[in-house]
Amino acid sequence: MMTKKMKKRLYRILAGAAVLAGALIAEHGFHLSNNVILILYLIAYLIVGGDVIRKAARNIISGQVFDENFLMGVATVGAFLVGEYSEAVAVMLFYQVGELFQSYAVNRSRRSIAQLMDIRPDYANRKEGEQIITVSPEKVAVGDILVVKPGERVPLDGIVTKGDSSLDTKALTGESMPREVSEGAEIISGCINLTGVLEMKTTKEYSQSTVAKILKLVESQGDKKAKTENFITKFARYYTPIVVLLAVLLAVIPPLLVPGAQWGDWIYRALSFLVISCPCALVISIPLSFFGGLGGASRCGVLIKGSNYLESLAQSEIAVFDKTGTLTKGQFCVVQVNAKGCAEETLLEIAAHCEGYSDHPIARSVREAYKNTPDLTRLAQVEELSGYGVKALLDGKQTAAGNEKLMETLGIPVEKAEAGGSVVYVEQEGVYLGSLVVADIVKEDAEKALRELKALGVKKTVMLTGDSKKAGTEAAKQLGVDQVYTELLPADKVEKMDALMKEKSGKGTLLFVGDGMNDAPVLAGADVGIAMGGMGSDAAIEAADVVIMTDEPSKLPVAVRIARRTLGIVRQNIIFAIGVKVLVLLLAALGLASMWAAVFADVGVAVIAICNAIRALNITGVQN
Amino acid sequence: MTKTFILEELDCAHCAGIIEEKIQKLEDVKSAQLNFMSRRLVIDAEESAFGRIIKDAKKIIKKTEPDVEMVEAH
Predict the structure, then answer these.
(1) Is the pLDDT of residue A318 over 90?
(2) For the domain that residue A185 is a member of, what is the CATH number?
(3) Hey, which of A295, A418, A530, A606 has its CA 20 to 30 A from A288?
(4) Which of A62, A103, A279 is facing B11, going by the closest CB pair?
(5) pLDDT at A456 over 90
(6) Concatenated DSSP letters for A123-187?
(7) Cβ–Cβ contact B1 with A under 8 A
(8) Which of A422, A442, A462 is at the close of a domain?
């Protein structure tokens, strides 16, 4: 897509190129008189470079020299004066082609990022009585009932009250598997409803909904700049005046001092300097690379709040994790079923019925493991013994489920289960039936995430947890964490963090990964505070520097890889652009490089650097 | 307080750097960040000073890149 401005430029380039071709034919094919040829070249020059000259003149009047228009103007007018007509026109032509390409590339990447983050819901279908009224999402109140049809975007956060469907969360999480939802499920704004009609009750206003928060975050992403970006801005400020000064010296000194040196020859060399003196390639390709890196990360479901964090991520040396909800699922789950003398299903059935009335998280996990709903009519005389377990009559049989202490009081010998979790022993009519181990299970990809971070050069992984020593060390062992601190209060976490911050070496950074719950001070204290499970958690989105939209710790190595690659591209561009420019400057000073080489060192390098920068948007190869 | 503006038609990265630097130097501006890629200019200043700052910023922009239009983002 070209803007009007770009199209105008393109037409001027084409027309100018045609006239230039005519002039070249006139000069070399027909050998017309010099004046006719000069006029033809001037026409071509004015078509192509008229606006550059106009802008240059205007800038001089307002007291600004050293801008690219001025430099190109002086260089090409100078070329006319030393008699290099065709070169003057050609240099201007290539300069314009380069400029056109630059704005095209910048425009395209701006657009592709905008598309990527096109998650803004345009409207909401509000149910009012039997009628459905289309309103803007901002007008919907908390508690309103909305209808979301297939193909539509969920406009606000809420809970499904009717219907089943699957949701596409790709734009939010980078996860391509649709998520199944049914009545009672919490759904998040910005997802696309794929299959069925859903009715939902809103739980938040639009401005507090996930989609509004993400959009705000993404829009302000570039406001924090990387050190490299600031360096380039500074570099550009000195580079141009220095090269221009060198050009002046080159034009004046050798003809005055060196016997036999020709003015025309040295002025020509100086003009090449002016062509190279524009820092465009750098100033455009560096922010473009960072922008691409941020965009690529968003595509993977990792929102990074500024390019400065890309730099910090790339240098991560210590990674500190919160345990519950970050490396583990934060919910209890039956991890082991040890049935003795009965089928596993029977054991689960009996245990689930015993725990049928209990609200304890362990009881809930047992019922969940027993896939069916317990039939509570089978129960009688339920007795909940706090700190022990439950006794009840199940189908008229005396049954108990609880910890070791309960079994001891009942005089039932048990087979001790060994695991880092809570154990529920079950007996019926004095017969021991077996045990269930309930634990907060680690996320499937947590171990892999830690392993990959190590492979990426992170020196140390640390886990901080408020959990018991037993549960903490067990999880740490399972995950392969280097160091674990258990039984920490929130204030202790901050203290441990400060100590760890002192351990890192000069350039290394410390990452803290939490789930955004109660760890705002720790998130703020780290070089990079990373919050997981950004979908739905407001606190996380606000407090963190990086938000991982899904619950997967394995996105962390992905983020580090993206950061490293982006910085690699930035470094390549800096070295390439400065290298080529310095080389051509040297060759031009020696009279070995023509103005053609100079224009390549200017716009050619810019075009190549931009193409390289666009690679940062590409995420194939950095994902697992 | 901070205010955010969009610089429409901004397509010269070097000019963006110049504009940013000059706005940073304006009186009463605590900080100013111009992001070339997103075209967003974020200015932090006292509310009472904003009227003058915006006027001066527009002047700077007109002088550096006459095609660029500064509009407040909402």
Answers:
(1) yes
(2) 2.70.150.10
(3) A530
(4) A103
(5) yes
(6) -EEEEETTEEEEE-GGGPPTT-EEEE-TTPBP-S-EEEEE--EEEE-HHHH---SPEEE-TT-EE
(7) no
(8) A442
